[in-house]
Amino acid sequence: MIFFSKFLRIIFYCLLFCISINAKEVKTVYTVSNVENSAVNVYIVNKNLFDITLKYNPKYSKLLSKDFFPIIKSFKAKSKTKIAKFLILDKKFTLSNKYKWSLGNKNSKHNNKYLYRLPYALRTSQQVTQGFNGKFSHFGNSKYAVDFGLKIGTSVYAARGGIVVMTQDNGNKNGQSKKFAKYGNFITIKHNDGTYGKYNHFKYKKVFVKVGQKVKRGDKIGLGGNTGFTSGPHLHFVVFKGKSSNSRTSIPVKFITKTGIITKPIRKKFYTAVK
Prior knowledge:
Glucose Permease (Domain IIA), 2 domains, single chain, eleven-stranded antiparallel beta sheet, 25 strands, four-stranded antiparallel beta sheet, mainly beta, elongated, Immunoglobulin-like
């Protein structure tokens, strides 16, 4: 009986290992091909809750296509879309569907009239530690990001409502090198105009929302921390849209404060949050 019990435990752990391996291999973006009327049709399947921008650059032989490659195109969340068609010249054709993608739709148009809420408690003030075009890290696809000097454990609130499409809360390291970026705990929220708001550097296991959850402007979403690529505790906030298959473009936004609307957060200045 003891031997049999040990054998069952071994089988259980083997199955658990196989399941975990398979889970890592699950793709959320992939291609599906089918043959119909002497042609191969290729579809892009996006199973994510967010739009993507994808670059499709297939390798093939003994096929003919009227499309020009590479194709760079955006695809809606939870969609299956035809991207290419090949005429079969020989039954021994080959087709390798090579592609890469990034989060966001390059065709989205930000609502520039929207006034964002400061992402901390109402009637409290926080200091901007790095604004637009910040020399430390706000350039490239983070050009219009803003860092607020929140202490560890400070409550973070949604600056704009939407649907949570990505989160991470298991990071527990930080440092002033990009190699630490993968440890940054974050929340990404999709807005109704197709843009995204990303909140970064949450405290370990202190993200309070889940993927698929709808949040309203002003909802509490987590606690500030010091995880990832940081030089100290703060909240990194950026609004962005898709740009290409490996990049995004950040968007300058307007914040409503106690003293009025700000279009360019100034480093070292304190701003008080209002509705």
